[in-house]
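Before going further, learn to read the protein records used in this course. Taken together, the tokens spell out the fold as the letters spell out the chain. A record is reproduced here so that you can trace the correspondence yourselves:

***
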Amino acid sequence: MSTSVHSKKKPIRVLVSKLGLDGHDRGALVICRALRDSGMEVVYSGLFCTPQQVAKIAIDEDVDVVAMSLLNGAHLTIFPKVARILEEHGVTDILLIGGGVIPLKDKKILEEKGVKGNFGPGTPLNIIIDYINKNLKK
């Protein structure tokens, strides 16, 4: 009798977070569904999260990726703060990606502060999914 061993690969766990005083979550909800439909496990933070809350959820949920969304222009302050808090807790193996209304000139600054991707409105969902699959840290 031959035995077949199936190694079940753990799905990628993604925290999709809405930070700060941004009450627009339609795009984040679309991202949640697309990531889930691609086989990823998705945790959604809900609206109006602080960087501390996002970092805590990321740690508590043992996620592989934190996808941060912001439309109100505070991305240069809030996204890097999440990165700093995670680093202060010794967490360096989570891929941090940004999305929302982020001017081109700000993307390089965010990249230097550890927030990658920085996808704007209208980015094809498969581009975001591929980016996550190719850039995981864990």
In short: Residues 1-7 have pLDDT under 50 and may be disordered. Residues 13-135 form a domain with the Rossmann fold fold (CATH 3.40.50.280). The chain has one domain: 13-135. The CA atoms of residues 34 and 125 lie 7 Å apart.
